[in-house]
Amino acid sequence: MKGLRPTIAELRVRVQKDRHGKIGNWLARRVARPTAVYGCWLAIWLGLSAHQVTLAALCSSLGAAVAIGSGDRIIFICGVVMAHLGFWLDHVDGQVARWRESVSLDGVYLDYLMHHAANLALGFALGYGLAARSGDARWTIAGFAIALGWALLSLDNDCRYKAFFQRLKSVTASYRIDGGGGGRPQPPAPWPRRGRAALTWPAYKLCEVHVVLVGLAGLAVLAIALPAVWLALWRGGVLLLAVLAPALGIGRAARSVLKSRVEAEFSRWFLPLEPQAMRETAHPVNPPACPLDRAAARE
After folding, report:
1. Could you give the CA distance from residue 184 to residue 176 in angstroms, rounded to a whole number?
2. Tens digit of pLDDT at every position of the chain (299 positions)
3. I want to staple 256 with a disulfide (CB 3.0 to 4.6 A). Which of 20, 145, 221, 261 is the partner?
């Protein structure tokens, strides 16, 4: 499988995740994943590894941040194109890994690092580009606020799971891991119509990468047709995100701590073994020869 050059039809069958058309955001389900098979085919034809495609996605995303941060109208448009290319390549790398049977936790680790670096760079670039264009350095503060807010939102999961393993490293008890006990990926939930969630749901959506990319695409079109409107909406969008992103990030972290959500999720994933079960598993007679599960969350 690793050395073969597949057809597009073979790739469509083999490299897509289960429920790839139901799980995840709209841009991923409807655009990136279906078209990524063509990029996967090209990457395999060129002999590229999944890691190399991930690094290409990172370079494209960082290049997009540099272009948007220039403040130039034409270069801004190029930056938006590069941002979408980075998002698309982020779906190609996982397909390449599945075809080459090289899916690993190392690949997921590199993928997450790429996401954090790309989000930080893009968030800051949105404000810095306005500062470069207008000469008003205060826009860099707005860019920093966006980057900080996005970092808080994306690090919520990372810090939670790091806390899990910090406990597992410090205890001597044995646990049974209940796969999926803490929750598996689910199709996107609809917009709640009642309560506080009716307001917070769209606010969180505005900070999600696919919504930001769609918004940037709209700005790129306006930069071509209506430059004055493009600049006004760019400023308004940056101000909005500079307020929303940090507030949502801080709010999510505060709710997690106040409502003990980390403890609750840990108890769903890791179940203490009963003393008898612990004795039975301490010295198994014929331990099964099970290879490590290398399944990963790479797109």
Report:
1. 17
2. 555 678 899 898 889 888 788 888 899 999 999 999 999 999 999 999 999 999 999 999 999 999 999 999 999 999 999 999 999 999 999 999 999 999 999 999 999 999 999 999 999 999 999 999 999 999 999 999 999 999 999 999 899 999 999 999 998 888 888 777 777 878 888 888 888 888 889 999 999 999 999 999 999 999 999 999 999 999 999 999 999 999 999 999 999 999 999 999 999 888 888 655 444 444 444 444 433 333 345 56
3. 261
pTM to 2 decimals?
Answer: 0.88
Topology classification of domain 8-282 = Four Helix Bundle (Hemerythrin (Met), subunit A) (1.20.120)
The DSSP-derived string for 191-217 is: PP-SSTHHHHHHHHHHTSHHHHHHHHH
